[in-house]
User: Fold this.
Amino acid sequence: MSTGPVILSSEWDAYNLLDCGNRRKLEAFGENLLIRGEPKAWWDAEHSVGEWRQAVAEIGDAGGNWKIRGKPPRKWLLEYGRLKFEARLTDKSKHVGVFPEQEPHWSWLRDRLSRRTRPRVLNLFGYTGAATLVSADAGAEVTHVDASKPSINWARHNQSLSGMETAPIRWILDDAFKFVAREVRRERVYDAILLDPPSFGRGPKGELWKVEQQITSLLGNIRKLVDPKKGMVVLTMYNLEASSLMLKCLMEDYFPEGKLEYGELALKCSATKRMLPLSLFARWEG
Assistant:
């Protein structure tokens, strides 16, 4: 059974999308007001130029260096329940270490994992560990896989900030595609598998990843790692050329039974109530 397409929006009080338009977005991460490039915001912004000028830092969609105004902190904390995530202004990247639009998945995971006894979660392309820490906080044993050592170090720092040093988390620096294949050979089984694959990337040993060429093989192996009757898989993508219907069709090939929900993760703009679409998703429950 499939449900969708649906639009899910964050209700995280540490973040607010104040305005968006003209291929930019004005955002409050805690007390820090930022402007970041946004290729999906084609319409006109609502707020006056003066209100946008209150931002303490700005970066375009192509990256480059942040344009700093005044003396904002380069690092600061964002709280999600009892968890703490460190946000950073890192040159040559518009990302600050957390994706607020993913919050509906965090809530969904916490609700389901907390009902199980010691569930096992595999988080692929885990970045700075928000979903990993949410899962561990809900009582799960988590295996976190990422090809970037700096991202894993950042995630482990978030673990420490959250006071979760003893949580059962395995941090794996590896190519996700190869790691999953090895887990299949080991006959491992997980209660939930999360994956947010990039369009293009390289593993720690230079392994090439192209999502359009490898996602089907990856999902084929993931199917072997989850219980078909009670497993969960959450797939998100940021590819501009993709669609939620495409993810639905893709997931149906590998998970034909159970409940499949698909759609978009979006953020509600407080200035206009418009929904800014940011990510596509499909999530399955056996």
About this structure: The domain at 2-285 is CATH 3.40.50.150 (Rossmann fold). The radius of gyration is 19 Å. The mean pLDDT is 93.
